Amino acid sequence: MARLRKHRLVALACVAATAQARTLPEMAVSNEFVICAAPDDMPFSRRDGTPAGLYVDLGRLVASDLGLALGIRWIPRRELARRVGCDAIMGAAVVRAEDRPTSWRNVLTVPWMRAGAVVVDTGRGPAATLDTLRAGHVAVPSGSWAHRWLDAHGVPVWVRFRTDPEIIGAVVRGDADAGVVSDVAAGWYRQQAGAANLRVLDTLLDPAEFAFDVAIDLLDTDAATLARVNGIVRARLADGAIAAIGLRYGAYRPPAGQR
């Protein structure tokens, strides 16, 4: 995701190095449900502009249902979340669903969305195949599963582009022959800029390997807080509020699994 300027990161870390996540009674004291988000990573979040992003809108919905205001800590990487006192990260991949948390340090709620990675190109030529991709360069985030998978299949990659918007920009400009981005980011771009400049090739990557459910990651929480947020997610899935937020940003799929 997007990076903050270095001096902002240093200041943020120094000011809030001892901040801690909180349970519901502790949140109530400050009247805030605090999420961490990247400052420039649409369609997921942005510090300036409207709409504010999928994660911010979902955070605001959860905060409202908790009877709290929404607080946001802007961070470049989610590893910094504990240093700035975040209660939650709104988008975390569900790798393996667990009936009971083994630790309250990081606990995932029930999933609220299905997401995945797709290959995109400009659509100016025939649809890409793995063979044609081997003759070009595909932009992917460094160290990602897509990076490793394409390497293993003999596809040259470029890892100079770190975020979905950067990868899409590289593809549209012709700096990369194709890119691998989230389906949500591809949907957002096509909604904003039109579908003509970006083709989604959603059959090149196996959904079994590249699709996953997304949940809220609660930090240093407890059973009561988890149960309350799970109840909100289930209710808002049932009444369509979460789907409406997702579709506002160009794409939404309901989660495949429920707990």
TrEMBL record:
InterPro entries on file: Solute-binding_3/MltF_N
Superkingdom, taxonomy of origin: Bacteria
Protein name: Transporter substrate-binding domain-containing protein
Lineage, uppermost ranks: Bacteria, Pseudomonadati, Pseudomonadota, Betaproteobacteria, Burkholderiales
UniProt keyword list: Signal
Organism of this sequence: Massilia cellulosiltytica
Domain Solute-binding protein family 3/N-terminal, first and last residues per copy: 32-253
Stretch forming the signal peptide: 1-21
